[in-house]
Amino acid sequence: MKKILILAILIGWCLGEDFSLPTIKVIQQEIAPSKRYYALLQPDESRIYSQNVRFEGFVEKLYANKTYLKVKKGEKLFSVYSPELINAQGELLASLRFNEQIGAIKEKLRLLGIPKNEIESIIKNRKIKNSIEISSNFDGVIFTKNISEGGFIKRGDELFKIIDLSHIWVVAKINQEDLEFLKHSQKAMVKVEGIPNKFQVTLENINPQIGLNDKFIEARFGLENQDSIFYPNMFAKIEIFGESKKRLVLPKDAVLIKNNQAIVFKKDDFGFTPINIEVKQLSNGDYEILQGLKLGDEVAKNALFILDADAQNNGDY
Questions:
Q1: Residue span of the structural domain in which 145 resides
Q2: Is the Cβ–Cβ distance between 269 and 12 less than 8 Å?
Q3: Are residues 251 and 117 part of one domain?
Q4: Pairing of strands 216-224, 199-210
Q5: Residues 179 and 272 in one domain
Q6: What CA–CA distance (Å, rounded) separates 164 from 171?
Q7: In a domain, 146, yes or no
Q8: Average pLDDT over all residues of the chain
Q9: Which of 197, 200, 219 has its CA nearest to residue 208?
Q10: What pLDDT, in 10s, does the model give residues 79-124?
Q11: What is the pLDDT of residues 210-262, one digit of tens each?
């Protein structure tokens, strides 16, 4: 490809003497490199809870009678009739009469899972309660319900699985070759399908295991979800940013990629000279200049326009 001096003269003659090809200068910008990956929202494992009982009995009234109900710690879930609890209440009332081991019996009821307000009610009224109301031990959403009104519950049974979704994980699959980039990443932004806006997330863990088949590494990012707009198994795309530093940059239109070679048309005293440069494409489509140009160098703003015009001038098409 030859120096394009005649081309600039011909274009100027055709379009007017004041015509000049638009140019742009190499600038320096503070840029953080980034990479994008697919991700899936999943519950934070540290916020998955099991609500069970430490006694046996019959469920008299079930308040939390469906899955996906949102419950708060201390909110009543069901009431239960239990001979074991009735016996423990009898021990408490006896200790009150004789003023002996009151604290120990109260602690026994507490360890059996009886809410504090129920224990205080028994002491205040000096009367055994045949039906005891059991409250949730956790904040969250009921994902599994293994209890029915009128049913029998046993010691140690998981009655509810409750998951706190106020903080969830964004689990991304990262290419093995990007491991070092991930370790030195500065921040990450996630875009969840169906949800407007992007949200900043925090890298919490890189799972120490690589998939045998796909060679991907799983990384967990923490996402705040106080407004309950995100749900498990939502699909997302995550953009991870590396260390920010100053880089030489040209817009994508100024760089022509031909046969895997980056070309720009550099302006000089005689017109425009095509030169090969080394570049790296940024996430926004622009190019970082790695070699071949320096800060302030002036090039044609639209490399493809120059190439097309040169081809027509040489009769290539």
A1: 54-155
A2: no
A3: no
A4: antiparallel
A5: no
A6: 17
A7: yes
A8: 88
A9: 219
A10: 999 999 999 899 888 888 877 788 888 888 888 888 888 888 888 8
A11: 888 888 999 999 999 999 999 999 999 999 988 888 999 999 999 999 888 99
Q: What is the pTM of this model?
A: 0.73
Question: Does 204 fall in a domain?
Answer: yes
The reported pLDDT for the residue numbered 116 is 87
- Phi/psi for 46 (5° steps) reads -75, -5
CATH code for the domain of 230: 2.40.30.170
Amino acid symbol at 146: N
Angle value at C-alpha 309, between 306 and 310, nearest 5 degrees: 85
Q: How many domains does the chain have?
A: 3
Could you give the CA distance from residue 155 to residue 118 in angstroms, rounded to a whole number? 20
Torsion, Cα of 113, 114, 117, 119 (10° steps): -130
Same domain, 196 and 116: no
> Whats the size of the chain, residue-wise?
317
Residues 277 and 189 in one domain: no
* Residue at token pair 């055709």: 14
Structure tokens that stand for 146 in this block: 């293994």
CATH number, domain of 272, equals 2.40.420.20
Amino acid, res. 55: F
